[in-house]
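User: Sequence in, structure out. Go.
Assistant: Echoing your sequence, followed by the structure tokens.
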Amino acid sequence: MRFLSYLIENMKIALAQINPIIGNFSYNLNKIASYTDKAKQRGADLVIFPELATCGYPPQDLLLKASFIETNLEALADIAKLAKDIAILVGFVDKNKGSGRPLHNSAAFIVNQKIQSIHHKTLLPTYDVFDEDRYFEPANKYDLAQLANSKFAVSICEDIWTNSAAFGHQRYNKDPINNLLKLGPQFLINISSSPYSVGKEKIRQDLLVDQAKKYNLPVVYVNQVGGNDELIFDGRSLALDKSGNIIGLAQAFTEDLIIVDTDTNKSELKESLEEDIANIHQALMLGTRDYMTKCGFSKAVIGLSGGIDSAVVAAVAVEAMGAENVIGIAMPSPYSSKHSLIDAKDLADILGIKYQIISIGDAMQCMDNTLQEVFAHKPKDVTEENIQARLRGLILMALSNKFGYLLLTTGNKSELAVGYCTLYGDMCGGLAVISDVPKLSVYELAHYINRKADKFIISKSIIEKPPSAELRPNQKDSDALPDYSILDPIIYFYVEEHKSASEIVSLGYDAKVVIDIINRIDNNEYKRYQSAPGLKVMSRSFGSGWRMPIVKGFKERLNSRNLLC
């Protein structure tokens, strides 16, 4: 074993940024074997894989299945056989042999085809989308991993998130890195499955730079990549020298393998995405592609209204899956404008997708006739508008059932927040692609898609027309909602920043508008509870990390004299 005579100063370390499928152990094992082989071919002494790489992250309640744990351990035994002429560090689920919860979130360090040491995760997050304390017992002892004369500290994801700057406050009263430092490591390794949200990559990088500088040690960080349900993992694995300089950086939103040569500090620095909107676009493409392919879908169907939301979803789907795998359906009613149909057709032509028109006019008349007697003497209202949306949902779900398409819903975060959407209508579908993207950011996405293509994928007509559901004559979103330049910031402050009504009003927003929007957000929890799963791109999303009761007596103190005076 040539590397056994090496010191840390002349090691080659491979950062294997892979995209596992949760619970598909044979797939994940083959992926790990492939990347181990690539690392060997490039002369690596050690290859490092992400947190829970054997099973994929997050496995959630699959961890309650005994067979899942056993299969994971069998996969680890097979991975150990790969450690010939190379050492492997890989995340897996270990059994807890002591008291407490039955499992550990662990890393196995494998040398000469044998597991030399096992390292358990200490900090088990329960905030936002995380619920690790439900399954895992934290580490109660610390050891270093050793390769020849080189000793290194192994930590797992949250174990490094102890810097108060990362959260704005000190979240934990333990610091596992300090415990590891007492043992005298020569460098730090963190294996991770850290999901993407806007701006998180900067926070994460600053955190790692701070660790390197604080402890005066090199840091190697390997992150999972890919989409699993609502979560999107952006990768961006990296290595830093002891001064906090980045000496290796993997690509964002794609699998990658980079080699860090500790003798020369030479490595690979892949180009990173700078703009938030570029990151959101890449995240949505990756999340859509992985959700579809990992669930076994090859084709998507989308209702094309001629509006900006469906246009952006269609453009993302085409980039994710290819134009031949996306079907656009226009479903005009007597209230649909001609320019909307023209815009939908033009979009389909530019994208190169299959396009069909299925009118709902006859179905609307049929429903009017069916309900005429029971609705006698009642004026038309939102009920008839919702019937139109539900007829469209019925048609799209029929196509999904008949042809095996995945229906992509097109509602944005602004609409979902305030309930400006119809249950069993435009909310129907298997994946809500932009449900975490505020309306103003949808416009940004449209401009970015055009700029990236250097042509109008999404036409000027679509971008500039006033948003409208077109469920009644001359309808516009502004009839029911404040301008999105007002709505979106209030939603952000209330949902993502957890600010109270009075705090939002103090920022200069009209009290009556704030009260109305907060009431809508609170009162529409029942709709969000029944919505399609959506891709998380913001720090706080309406998904597994949003745990509000539907039935509740508590209300913000919205009608105080101070607010409305």
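User: And one key feature?
Assistant: The chain has two domains: 14-272, 279-480.
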